[in-house]
Write a structure and sequence with these properties.
Blueprint: H1 3-7, H2 13-18, H3 25-28, E1 45-50, H4 57-70, E2 75-79, H5 85-97, H6 105-129, E3 133-137, H7 140-150, H8 155-166, E4 173-178, H9 181-190, H10 197-200, H11 204-220, E5 225-229, H12 234-245
Parallel strand pairs: 1-3, 1-4, 2-3, 4-5
Helix pairs in contact: 4-12, 5-6, 6-8, 7-8, 7-11, 9-11
Bound molecules: thymidine-5'-phosphate (TMP).
Thymidine-5'-phosphate binds next to helix 7.
Length: about 250
């Protein structure tokens, strides 16, 4: 078995087992309790977009958002890390730190999870309760793949931390834009970004692991994941995304 696949063993069960559990009674005693939607209350949809840098997520999110708006659907788009004041501050820590000491993978995991926990409670959960379609540029699968698979952290703590951060809010649909590592690297080099140099300095091996990580996740959770070839034209990708999700939005 290749190493990446071995490191992915046991990846799926914790996510399946606890997805959509409703809040435990102890949550209700917290003074700053923020309601988290159970599967029944959430009439909106959460669609996450995943893939390596340069895979075209933001272009497709913008296209899907305007298509949905033209159909009079309420849409909110968010990006990770960020999307809330606290999340943007966390993004700044991740970005600035790259210029000094290297940040260890454990710190990175916890910071991404912290930003996500805030985003879920402040923006995503309330939007889902309001029947809104939320398009998220990355979500918990990014931590599974980047920190777990590509940076080699153990899967159990990665899964536990991911689930603690998102609570009952799991994506309904996850679209992976799949591009070969050479294409990611070439596209990354052409664009300007505030992202840590460290994250964009990785080599082909790193992006190969990222790609394989997404493909293995998608294979294990076919009811949630849709993989689309991200090397096709933007118009073709947009049509394929729409064809695969349009009947799953109500
Ligand atoms: P992007 O803005 O091109 O999507 O890049 C975000 C960067 O942050 C990318 O290098 C992936 C990384 N990232 C993680 O490593 N783990 C995470 O959980 C998230 C959300 C992002």
């Amino acid at each position: 078995m290749p190493d990446t696949h071995r490191s992915l063993e046991g990846l799926f069960n914790p996510i399946r087992a606890t997805a959509f559990q409703s809040s435990s009674p102890s949550h209700l005693t917290r003074p700053n309790f923020i309601p988290m939607p159970s599967k029944q209350d959430r009439s909106g949809k959460l669609i996450s977009f995943e893939g390596s840098e340069g895979s075209g997520k933001s272009t497709q999110i913008a296209r899907l958002a305007s298509r949905l708006q033209s159909l009079s659907r309420d849409v909110v788009t968010v990006r990770e890390p960020g999307g809330t004041e606290i999340g943007e501050q966390i993004r700044t820590i991740i970005v600035h730190n790259s210029k000094g000491e290297e940040m260890c993978a454990e710190t990175e995991l916890l910071l991404f999870a912290a930003a996500r926990a805030q985003l879920v409670r402040e923006v995503i959960a309330p939007a889902l309760i309001r029947k809104t379609i939320v398009l998220s540029d990355r979500f918990l699968d990014s931590s599974t793949v980047y920190q777990g698979v590509a940076r080699n952290l153990s899967m159990d703590p990665v899964n536990q931390i991911n689930l603690f951060a998102v609570g009952s809010v799991m994506p309904d649909i996850t679209i992976v834009l799949d591009v070969p590592p050479e294409v990611s690297l070439a596209r990354i080099r052409r664009r300007a970004s505030d992202l840590p140099d460290r994250m964009e300095r990785e080599n082909i091996d790193f992006y190969t692991k990222v790609r394989e990580g997404y493909l293995v996740l998608a294979k294990g959770l076919p009811e949630r994941f849709i993989v689309i070839d991200g090397t096709q034209s933007e118009d073709v990708i947009e049509k394929k995304i729409w064809a695969s999700i349009k009947d799953r939005l109500d």
